[in-house]
Amino acid sequence: MEKIKESTIIANFCSPIETVWNIVTDNTAYTWRSNVVRIEVSDDGNSFTEFTKDGFETQFTITIKNPYERYEFDMKNKNMNGHWVGLFSKDGSGTKIELTEEVEVANPIMNLFVKSYLKKQQETYVIDLRKSLGE
């Protein structure tokens, strides 16, 4: 049985690619994220841990960071392991982003719901990002 689940969201913004990139990749400035209350960044900046309102934590390790093009990281918590890919491209004077998450969960019950959960998380992320850009 296939355990890896994938979800992709594509969004366009009026803001310049540099602005969108800087907001998405600055893990020290997270107050625009409605579902994150704290992020702890490692001293070398190559990894970080996000904490949700209910205290749930997820660890991230940055694997690729090509400015204004591609941002990737591995992620893991007690329920899943996965990989996140963010592709950034200019769209006229604005920006197009394509965000893809692939996760694998051990719990067969959670596996039934993880794709819809990922989609909801991605939609929230885009809504929050749009608000932070004033769009």
From TrEMBL:
Pfam families: Polyketide_cyc2
Protein name: Polyketide cyclase
Superkingdom of source: Bacteria
Species the sequence originates in: Lacrimispora amygdalina
